[in-house]
Amino acid sequence: MNAIRCPQCKALNSNSAAECGQCKFSFEGLPPTAYVSVPPAEFEKLAADSPRDVSNAWYDIPKDNETGKKIYLWYRIYSGCLLFVSVIIICTGVYVFTGPPGALDTTPEGQTVGGVLYIILGIITAVLYSIAMFSPRKPWSWVFGVVILAIGIVTFCFLPSLVLLIFWSKPETRAYFGRKIKK
User: Fold this and answer.
1) Is the Cβ–Cβ distance between 67 and 174 less than 8 Å?
2) Which residue, 72, 76, 112, 71, is CA-closest to 95?
3) CA-based nearest residue to 82, from 24, 113, 74, 22
4) Distance from first CA to last CA of the chain, Å, rounded?
5) Which residues neighbour 116 within 8 Å (Cβ) at sequence distance 6 or greater?
6) Which residues make Cβ contacts (< 8 Å) with residue 75, sequence separation at least 6?
């Protein structure tokens, strides 16, 4: 059984619905005949024709729009640039760690610790920006983008991060990722 047919209006509803999306009939204490099995192709067609209540969901169906596409493209370019900076930080850490002792006007222990810190910081940021760059268009990805852009505001990328964060918060971008727009 993959659907509930409303006993009152005969609309097709999701198996997990608490009430009918069309007439708001409560599904508490339904008879077993209300639970129906519909072939997947027919279920998709009927479900598309039947209104569904998703007012309590924190997500929605992603909606293509030009603003969302552009902002997502610039966000991925931003993430790619910072991924490149992260690789440079890792290379710098390797150079500092493997360099000849005392060549960088520091003690050998300080040079080792500094190199390891650069490598660790570079790897962490490289992983974060890789996830940001290649994340799918899902509601969680929009939230991850907010976090990445907020982190960017406190770094040397203040202005690009701030501009992207402003556009990232627009309703068009939220809809592009399937985030519910508060009314």
Assistant:
1) no
2) 112
3) 74
4) 35
5) 93, 97
6) 132, 145, 149, 164, 168
In DSSP notation, 60-123 reads ------HHHHHHHHHHHHHHHHHHHHHHHHHHHHHHHHHSPTTTTSS-HHHHHHHHHHHHHHHH
Residue 98, token pair as written in the block = 């493997």
Q: How far is CA 151 from CA 46, 154, 157, 162, in A?
A: 44, 6, 9, 10
Give 72-84 pLDDT, tens digit per residue.
999 999 999 999 9
Instruction: Report the distance separating Cα 41 and Cα 47, nearest Å.
Output: 10
Token representation of residue 121? 């910081």
Can you give the pLDDT at residue 35?
79
Please give the structure tokens belonging to residue 116. 């390891």
100 versus 54: the higher-pLDDT residue is: 100
- Whether the full predicted model's pTM is greater than 0.70, yes or no, is no
Q: How far apart are CA 165 and CA 143, in angstroms?
A: 11
Give residue for tokens 């030009």: 66
Segment 55-103, tens digit of pLDDT: 445 556 677 889 889 999 999 999 999 999 999 999 999 999 998 876 7
Task: Indicate the residue type of 104.
Answer: L
